[in-house]
Structures are given as structure tokens and as C-alpha cells.
Amino acid sequence: MSGKEILYVSYKDEPLEDGVSYAIYLAGALHEGLRVVLMNRDGAGWNSSSGDTGTAKVQSYISERCRKEGVKVTVHSGLLSTTSIVRNIISREKIDLVLLSPLVTHTRKVLNKLLKLSPRPVVTMAEASIQNKTVEGGKVS
Fold it and tell me: How many angstroms separate the CA atoms of 70 and 78, rounded?
């Protein structure tokens, strides 16, 4: 591992499978660690014990997936706004690039703030437009 990390920013309640899978794949392919920031949609931290339980489950899921793939991971959740957390991590960590989940990408206000504050490349992810389709003979049916 090079000591560099990819920072993946996601909402804790969005479907994580596609975004997390890509972030883990990218970290593994680049031989880098993965640092994940999970936020509520309003940008605030978790205020209730049920939120803490949900957060713990998401953190456990990400940690287990990374362990299986051999990717070093750190998962953050906190009380600061998304952009404040990202700014703090970028300023003190060896972040190589910032990867935004599909829903964070879709939230224009957050996206624009992150694009302005990041001295590192920001990679956005689009939501898949084709769902539950099968591929046969190279064509989507």
C-alpha cells in the first residue's frame, strides 16, 4: 500500500452496495486505503440511539467488505457538516482523490461545495439508469 487513500463520501441511508463496491475496487486497484465519510442527508451527525445502531451496522458492513478485499479502511461519522469533515480529512490525511456517492453527486449544493474546497480530484458517480435488466448476447433485454 502506498500510504495514500481514497476518500469516499456517502449518505448513511443511501443504498451502499454500488458505491461502496466501486470505492473498494478502486482502492484495491490503486493499492490505496479507503477512508469513508457517512452523513445524514441534512449534513448533520446522528442524534438518536437508533441512528447510532444503523451507523454501526453500515460501518460493520463496509469494514467486512474491505477486509475480504484486503483494503485498509477507516469509517467516519460525526457532528460536523459533510463539507467540514471532508475539509478536515483532506487537510490532515494523505487523500489521493475524493469519490462522491451517487446521491451526494445528485445533491448540487453539497457537490458544488466539495468541488470548491477539494485540492484533490473529485470523482462523481451517477445513479444507474438501467435496473433489473439482463444482458444476453451483448444486448440489454
Answer: 26
